[in-house]
Design brief:
The protein has helices at 4-9, 29-37, 41-48, 91-104, 121-127, and strands spanning 15-20, 58-65, 68-76, 109-112, 133-136. By secondary structure, it is α/β, with parallel strands linked by helices. Strand 2 and strand 3 form a beta hairpin.
Length: 137
């Protein structure tokens, strides 16, 4: 099965939904992988204080990559209890994310099931109704 980052870099989706936690530095999960691919561009936003990972936070980060714009959405998950397990995003973060996504009217996005606390496809569809999101492992 194709990963969310492969879908992004192969041009099959316009952007990614990423989780970010207050006490997670450096970035881990899908956000950490994407940050590495983009040579630390997301880390620059963290150091500048533009992203904190607080509950309800949703930061839209458009990034130039070769000849296209990658649309990255970092949703705040609050503090993590354990670095070994990525928890589900709080409802407040989902609501903010949905509001931001609906106002931009982008093409398909991708997300990682593991990065979003093991969310099931039906639950993701309910959280982001009306939006096309490909859920990768």
């Amino acid at each position: 099965m194709t990963s969310a980052e492969q879908l992004l870099f192969q041009g099959e989706v316009d952007g990614l939904i990423l989780s970010c936690f207050e006490n997670e530095r450096p970035l881990q999960g899908l956000a950490g992988k994407i940050d590495w691919q983009l040579r630390g561009q997301l880390s620059q936003f963290l150091r500048a204080g533009a992203i904190s990972g607080k509950v309800g936070e949703c930061c839209y980060v458009p990034v130039q990559w070769h000849d296209r714009i990658l649309h990255l959405f970092l949703a705040g998950g609050g503090p993590m209890n354990s670095p070994d397990e990525r928890p589900a995003l709080p409802t407040e973060s989902w609501e903010r994310l949905k509001k931001n996504l609906s106002s931009l009217k982008l093409g398909p996005l991708a997300a990682s099931k593991a990065d979003l606390g093991g969310i099931e496809p039906a639950a993701l569809k309910k959280r982001l109704s009306g939006m096309e999101v490909k859920l990768a492992p």
